[in-house]
Amino acid sequence: MKNRSRLEIIAMILETVGDNGAIQAKIMYKVYLSFLQMKEYLSQLMKNDLIVYDDGAQIYKMTDKGRRFLILYKQMTESITMTKPIL
């Protein structure tokens, strides 16, 4: 597997959480993170209001801000891959 950027990992987490939410195990296995890496990313995403933790359902849910981030990330990566190579 190629090295991924932080933004790519964040986008993968947000896609995994989606509109229905996800438990820690699902996030960890779908995004290929260790438990410690996953906890760090989830903490940062919650601090930045991209996801929230639902205590009752015990799942992580994406916020509106998280949805906007994911849309902008996808638009950015599409526009970069559509451009012609520089060299």
Automatic annotation (TrEMBL):
Signal peptide positions on this chain: none
Entries under Pfam families matching the protein: HTH_45 (PF14947)
Domain ArnR1-like winged helix-turn-helix: from-to ranges: 4-78
Entry protein name: ArnR1-like winged helix-turn-helix domain-containing protein
Native organism taxonomy: Archaea, Nitrososphaerota, Nitrososphaeria, Nitrososphaerales, Nitrososphaeraceae
